[in-house]
Amino acid sequence: MQNSRTAHAKVPEERWHADAWYHPDPDRKGSLNTTHGFFLEQDVAAFDAPFFSVTAKEAAGMDPAKRLVLEVSYEAFENAGLPMDKVAGTKTGVYVGSMTSDYELLSTREIYDEPHMAAAGSSEAMTANRVSWFFDLRGPSLTLDTACSSSLYALHLACQSLRLGETNMALVAGVSVVLHPNFMQQLVAMHMLSPDDISHTFDDRANGYGRGEGLGGLVIKRLGDAIRDGDTIRAVIRGSGTNVDGKTPSVTMPSPEAQADLIRDVYRKAGLPLDQTQYIELHGTGTPVGDPIELSAIAATFGACRSHGNPVHVGSIKPNVGHTEGCAGLAGVFKAIMCLEKGVLLPTAEVGKINPKLRFADWNIVLPAQTMAWPTHGPRRVSVNSFGFGGANAHIILDDAHHYMKAKGLNGEHSTLHNTKYLESNPASKSDITNSPTDKIMNGDENGIDVTKKPKKKKKKKLFIMSSRDEPGIQRLGKSLGSYWKSDKAINDVTNAATYLSDVAYTLATRRSLFDYRSFVVAESTEELVQGLEGPLPRFKRSTKQNRVAFVFTGQGAQWAGMGRQLIEFPTFAASVARSKACLESLRCPFDVETEIQQTEGSKIESSEYSQPICTVVQIALVDLLREWDIRPKAVVGHSSAAAYAAEILSHEDAVKVAFIRGVYSGMVSRGPKAGAMLAAGISEEEAEAYLATMPSETVVTACVNSPKSVTLSGDAEFVDILEQSIAKDGNFARKLRVVPAYHSPHMRMVADDCLRAMVEAGVGGANQEAKIPMFYSLIPLRLASRIGSETCAAQYDFRKPSPVNLLVGSSGRRAGRKATVKWDALLEVGPHAALKAPLVQIMESIDAKLPSELLYTSLLVRKEDAVTTALKAVGSLWATGIPILLAKVNREQDLVESPQVVVDLPSYAWNHERVYWHETPATKVSPSTTHAAFVRHSA
């Protein structure tokens, strides 16, 4: 519209043979004096029927206009930030404006060949009723036909319903689809259509209107409800009204007096003066009679209280998109809202020489010749006028959201640009203004978008989620979003990109409907986001409704300097580390755990005195972060006292105490008289026993059974070295671990009594606690007792019991052929690294070869990778699998000082339009008087 572009095009071949139907004489029966119009680019026969629970047979019998209304209704709710589950069951009314029903002529002309459920497919009542049915809306539901003013009438009735308390929300829609030449020919016969196929609104060429296709949806609420719900408010409806012309010289001739009376009445009821409205979006059909009559009504009302220095501005969208008939009123409303938000007035396209009957100067009316800044400072107000060819008039008043709420002392979200001088100060950006509700322009008090003046933030990683009803829809949506951010210069040039991306992440996660096929991208900039969307998106099986995730806790040997340090930016993680620090200080810990977690150089993390408590502190903080996001395990498999904390058996402090005390005494062992070592080997438990039989007794033992093909050996360093060479020589994997001492071996007995005594004295597990979550204890192949006291708890960590860690038993729940009793949807490793992935995959393969592909494995941390990125990817994977997560908290955890806002200009749902649904009778297909006639009419 800013560039005066139009959608004018020739009638698509699939509609009818335009040249065959053409004849220049409008009075010639059975012909059309026009070959062009304004048509939707999409194939109107294409429809995402499965999304709306519509069978293929039913879809073929359904008017495409009704299908389009279903899709645009979803898009309207989506754009408003209202997921389907939030609108279901509510007192929401549905009001649809619709003027024509061409498909009925095509599909039901032959009584012996009518489509399935033809009555429901063609009934105008069903245009609104099916929307109410699908979304489970409980308010009024009606389809309205007042001809060209249908959708503005529908908006007025929706406003009335809200004022009366009959509804709490309303969906207003309008639709126009041109499928058959029959009604077109009737309009031609009445000399209503332009032989040029264009609405020459306000122009001296005005000779009728050009038909256009269109559809739109608008969600309205009472203002207080919208503010309460955190909705982004696009505009405020100050008043609305309708009337009818009464008896005029002919039934299709408008009445200037009736239109003027309606305008005065609507403004009087709203308590608003006529001289403060800066712009009027006119019906503006481009007919020789209609335009002068409508402008005379504007002159008698708005113009009469103006001067040459304070004129009222007018325009019309019809030259851009055609006369969309049943949708025309809403088309004007949408244009008016965009003008209010951006603070600009737009030119009316196709205006060459002004119609001499329109005395703009005398009437104090201005028609903008090009895009211009809003003519006044302060509140912005527009009117939208519409009338039907039978005399049904409608009028509505809109204010911009920002100034209205500011004047009323209200604080709500909106997307109004404040600066009315935007175009003058940014002439190169005339065509780049967007609807993004962010403070993109931050160079003065009159600039920006939000009245709260959001501060500029540092970029942080965010989780951006996507979902679809069908699996290929994920790639369609990713492509759509990627193209949008890649091509939109205004968004790429956002000054406060961090705020914008926070709002985007919030919108996608909490203000859109969530479906079963899911994926995600982790990014901190639009560039990184586009890169992720353009690459292969993570693919997952269809999500389930189960919440079965097991936490698997990494043991010793996976630690690394700086593990998890980036997560300190999450307040919950930082608070958990601080709590652990206080506990360690009470135990006279010689180091500052907060400082050590941040260390990347000079760290002592390889020392057991450091590694054990630091690993546990990080694991506990990860558990706390997961709890904040409402991610809780159904079972725990652990190598750490943090596992007992996750199972809600040990308290935070007790878990830290156990780790610290074990670290201290493990350090004593590492400094003992006998050097110890541990070895990871790619062999079975039975094969390990055979190798160990070649060693002196108790010099090396099996410390861990990781999987059917993986064990960890532990013991005297010299014999561990011999075994490493022997196992590797036989062609098996063998690698020494970077740990000291030899855990789970007889080496630990030298400090066992002192360690156990220290735990008891520290009061570990002093208060009996009920085990709330199944925990498969890793130091012995048994499930931990359900109730424990201080001595029994400490005994579980007793070094005198060098039993092997049997991960195979812990994770599969079976041994010696015993059937597994625990079934999970996902395994989440909680620890420094994805150390257990390989053995867990082997365990799953030993149970069922298909299990690794069916059961998700992911890890919160990965060695040497950014912890925020890996944690968000893990959470994204869990969510994609179907694990319920508080996504709003995941992305807001770093931004607690600020409320996010719904982004209103994101691409809508990516529909599956691969299949078309159409039913056309043989009579329509073959008759020479029907849509695809082969001969040229004007040749006869």
TrEMBL record:
Taxonomic lineage of the native organism: Eukaryota, Fungi, Dikarya, Ascomycota, Pezizomycotina
Molecular-function annotations in GO: 3-oxoacyl-[acyl-carrier-protein] synthase activity; fatty acid synthase activity; oxidoreductase activity
Positions of the Ketosynthase family 3 (KS3) domain: 1-400
Organism: Metarhizium robertsii (strain ARSEF 23 / ATCC MYA-3075) (Metarhizium anisopliae (strain ARSEF 23))
Protein name from the UniProt record: Ketosynthase family 3 (KS3) domain-containing protein
Record's keyword annotation contains Oxidoreductase: yes
Biased composition (Polar residues): 422-438
PANTHER family: ASPERFURANONE POLYKETIDE SYNTHASE AFOG-RELATED (PTHR43775:SF29), FATTY ACID SYNTHASE (PTHR43775)
Residue ranges of coiled coil: none
GO terms for biological process, alphabetical: fatty acid biosynthetic process; secondary metabolite biosynthetic process
Region (Disordered): 422-457
Pfam families: Acyl_transf_1, CurL-like_PKS_C, KAsynt_C_assoc, ketoacyl-synt, Ketoacyl-synt_C
InterPro entries on file: Ac_transferase_dom_sf, Acyl_transferase_dom, Acyl_Trfase/lysoPLipase, Ketoacyl_synth_AS, Ketoacyl_synth_C, Ketoacyl_synth_N, Malonyl_transacylase_ACP-bd, PKS_assoc
Keywords (A to Z) from UniProt: Oxidoreductase, Phosphopantetheine, Phosphoprotein, Transferase
